[in-house]
Amino acid sequence: MIQALVFDLMGTCTDWRSSILSALDSKPPLADPHSFAMDWRAGFFAEIHRRFQAGEDPEDIDITHRRVLDRLLSERNIGMDSAWDEETRDDIVRSWHIQQAWPDAVKGIETLKNKFFVIVLANGTTRLQLDIIQSSQLPFHTLLSSQLLGLTKPDPKIYQKVIDLLNLKPEECLMVAAHAYDLRAAASAGMKTAYIHRSTEDPEEDMDCLKQTFDFFVEGTDGSDVSGLVQLATILQA
């Protein structure tokens, strides 16, 4: 029987794209802010996976985001533009700390919290998680960061560490994420898996295939407050 739900944060519970597009809107103009935001996110994931494959230690996400931002500006030939000075770049990197929840997230987590432990497990620093939780008002029981655990998703050891900290069996823990790589790794540690389909995440994954891969597949792309995590609560009879 499932006793704990372990959540990814950005993309799964928060709409990072709207937050970043809002921040970009107040910065020097870009030809295509939407494409820039998506490339920034994709570049971040590429860096996370590169570091994991290389066996490198977890890195402060602010540092990763800044490195990817600098590369994107250079690739678009605006890296030398004085409007994109150090202060402007640092300011927009900090915008990742302020995010709004998906419409279904707060209500869904509040409902799930009545029946299960609800915990965040996400790459990044504890300060990043605290800032996101404060701005999004997501009501989790506790937060576990890669910085705190000294490991990075998708290392199987990080999922086992959480299982051990909760003093539960793997099958008593449900990993909830909008990223297939995250759930595949959690499943390898014996956890149950719930995929939340979000419009901002996993553009290269085959959703029909994922429906057959994980224990639960929940639509969360319509922007309503009755899908996503609210629907997951219904499925789990919370």
TrEMBL record:
> What UniProt keywords are attached to this protein's entry?
Hydrolase
Enumerate the SUPFAM superfamilies for this protein.
HAD-like
List the InterPro entries hit by this protein, alphabetically. 2-HAD, HAD-like_sf, HAD-SF_hydro_IA, HAD_sf, PGP-like_dom2, S-2-haloacid_dehalogenase
Q: Which domain of life is it from?
A: Eukaryota
- MF terms (GO), sorted A to Z: hydrolase activity, acting on acid halide bonds, in C-halide compounds; phosphatase activity
Q: Which family does it belong to?
A: Belongs to the HAD-like hydrolase superfamily. S-2-haloalkanoic acid dehalogenase family.
Write down what this protein is called: HAD-like protein
Organism annotation: Armillaria gallica
